[in-house]
Write a structure and sequence with these properties.
GO cellular component, one term: cytoplasm
EC number: 2.3.2.27
Domain RING-type: 158-196
Structural class: mainly alpha
Helix content: 40-55%
GO molecular function: ubiquitin protein ligase activity; zinc ion binding
Strand order of the largest sheet: 1-2
Oligomer: single chain
Order of helices and strands: HHHHHHHEEEEH
Family: Belongs to the Deltex family.
Strand content: under 5%
Distance between the termini: 40 Å
Radius of gyration: 21 Å
Largest sheet: 2 strands, antiparallel
Shape: elongated
Length: 202
């Protein structure tokens, strides 16, 4: 997993004298991240939460997760994300937490140690209101995106390519397809592949 690799890399490259304290902090931080569950709270302003920890926080330290909402999992070039998306019931969002957001939290923790010296979990977890602590806010941000409802259900299968659909394209006849599959079909035929109803190409 990407989060495990990032975590191990941070431990391997840390070279300061307070290595034991750093290891204890990161291991405890990792254990806590692994127990978090989405609180379904409204997403917080991550920049506002990060500013007290990292004064030179940059937006690119935590890029927007919105991009994941617009691509089929098969278009993200990650076998793991695609496999999790097939499971449905929010597994895709949990996979994004593992692949994208947890590694960034580890990087931010490491950055704060390098810039400000030894950190404590008390600083990271109690400096904010308990409902909006940093890691929880990041997880809630992940779940708070405008995901298609199907992400939290079991996905249907595209009748053209027979792969699961996370972002189905609904047509006026009631049938659904991957948008890319439907576009390819409409290049040759302007009827529904299932019922042959003429389709508008809007």
């Amino acid at each position: 997993m990407d989060d495990d690799k990032t975590f191990q890399l941070q431990l391997a490259v840390y070279q300061r004298a307070d290595l034991v304290a750093y290891l204890n902090f990161m291991i405890t931080f990792c254990a806590q991240l692994n127990t978090l569950k989405s609180s379904k709270a409204c997403p917080s302003d991550l920049a506002k939460l990060l500013r007290p920890i990292l004064s030179d926080y940059e937006p690119r330290d935590f890029p927007s997760l919105k991009n994941y909402c617009y691509f089929e999992p098969r278009d993200l070039y990650s076998d793991y994300l695609e496999e999790e998306a097939v499971k449905g019931k929010g597994a895709f969002v949990q996979a994004i937490w593992i692949v994208s957001t947890k590694p960034r939290l580890y990087n931010l923790a490491n950055k704060s140690w390098e810039q400000q010296g030894a950190q404590t979990l008390t600083l990271w977890l109690k400096r904010f209101h308990p409902l909006t602590l940093l890691a929880q806010a990041v997880l809630d941000e992940c779940y708070g995106q405008e995901w298609p409802k199907i992400v939290f259900q079991l996905p249907d299968t595209c009748p053209i390519c027979l792969s699961p659909m996370q972002w189905p394209e609904n047509r006026q006849c009631g049938h659904t397809f991957h948008k890319s599959c439907l576009v390819q079909h409409l290049n040759y035929n302007n009827t529904c592949p299932m019922c042959r109803t003429p389709l508008r190409t809007s």
